[in-house]
Specification:
This protein is an alpha/beta fold. The chain binds adenosine monophosphate. The site of adenosine monophosphate has 14 residues, from strand 10 and strand 11.
Length: 312
């Protein structure tokens, strides 16, 4: 029996299924989580299916989260999507269920769960969920609501089919999803659009990005600067990909200071492998897109020194 068959067997066996995703969600976290929830609701209307993890703020055009009591976890199947390690699962009650399944596309450094399906070749976790649907046409029934979410997750993680992880298969899956009745162009606009404050900060990024002779780039965004622009740390996700548009950049790191003084670190690359740097600084992620944490400016400088090295 394949892992996917085992996962379907578990899904069929449980009456209550609670689906989690990672903290600080992006469109793929929500797309894979709620896309799976909607797919299962449509396929098994008699089951109780929940998507949990707390408020999702700027992504609320995609979905709203369910709230469940601790009691609901008793005898439930729990599935975590798009989440590489247990500390990153949003809502730590994931461990209160009967069985835990991991479905993810990040490197499997933390092989948690009773059952796990990890495909690091997939562009996104949403692509994996769509693959799962296509494997079982007799059991799983897609609808427009689920298709919209999964399509949103795919365009979110591939930068609308721009990044390396986009494969012919990604495009085939996206085409399959696009055949359902939802407004794909409107969804693309919603994912791409930024507030005026983020647009102003984008100007700052382009003006102030430091790029070395090998294409390694960095920018530190202090909490004072964020305050000046009227933005929270979570609202800065829209600027992370911007340095990639500059022809001279090869890999870049953005440091965004948290209110308590530490830094959220966003690493991106057009070629050099950067997730080893992230792992060395309390983070992780994909070879070309990773996140980490720095305790102070000295650690930021250290991370940029490491980035410069891999760009040489
Ligand atoms: P970000 O820069 O926060 O958008 O993250 C880029 C990628 O790295 C995403 O796939 C995240 O799931 C992953 N990532 C970010 N922060 C961490 C972390 N602290 N630990 C492990 N993976 C992370």
């Amino acid at each position: 029996m394949s892992v996917q068959e085992e996962i379907l067997k578990e899904i069929k066996a449980y009456q209550t299924i609670i689906i989690h995703r990672h903290k600080n969600p992006d469109p793929d976290a929500i797309g894979s989580q709620v896309g799976l929830a909607e797919l299962l609701k449509n396929s098994f209307p008699e089951k109780k299916i929940y998507a949990v993890g707390g408020p999702i703020n700027d992504l609320d055009y995609l979905a709203t989260m369910d709230e469940v009591s601790d009691e609901t976890y008793k005898g439930a199947l729990v599935i975590a999507t798009d989440t590489a390690d247990t500390p990153r699962i949003s809502d730590e009650r994931y461990s209160l269920g009967d069985r835990l399944i991991k479905i993810d596309h990040h490197p499997n450094d933390d092989a948690y769960g009773d059952l796990l399906f990890v495909n690091t070749n997939a562009s996104s976790c949403s692509e994996i969920i769509a693959d799962f649907w296509r494997l079982f046409p007799e059991d799983l029934f897609m609808n427009a609501k689920a298709a919209r979410l999964l399509y949103g997750g795919i365009i979110g993680d591939t930068g609308r089919f721009l990044y390396d992880a986009t494969s012919p298969h990604t495009l085939e899956i996206a085409a399959n999803l696009m055949r359902f009745e939802f407004d794909a162009a409107e969804l693309s606009r919603q994912i791409e659009q930024v507030s005026r404050d983020v647009a102003r900060l984008s100007g700052y990024v382009y003006e102030n990005l430091e790029i070395d002779e090998n294409g390694a780039a960095q920018l530190i965004i202090s909490k004072e600067l964020l305050e000046e622009y009227g933005l929270t740390v979570a609202q800065t996700s829209g600027i992370v990909s911007l340095p990639g548009k500059i022809e001279d950049t090869k890999a870049w790191v953005l440091f965004v200071q948290n209110p308590e003084g530490t830094y959220r670190v966003h690493l991106r690359s057009k070629g050099p492998i950067i997730n080893e740097i992230a792992k060395a600084h309390h983070g992780g992620g994909h070879p070309l897109a990773s996140g980490a944490n720095a305790k102070d400016k000295a650690e930021c400088h250290q991370i940029f020194a490491e980035l410069k090295k891999v760009c040489q």
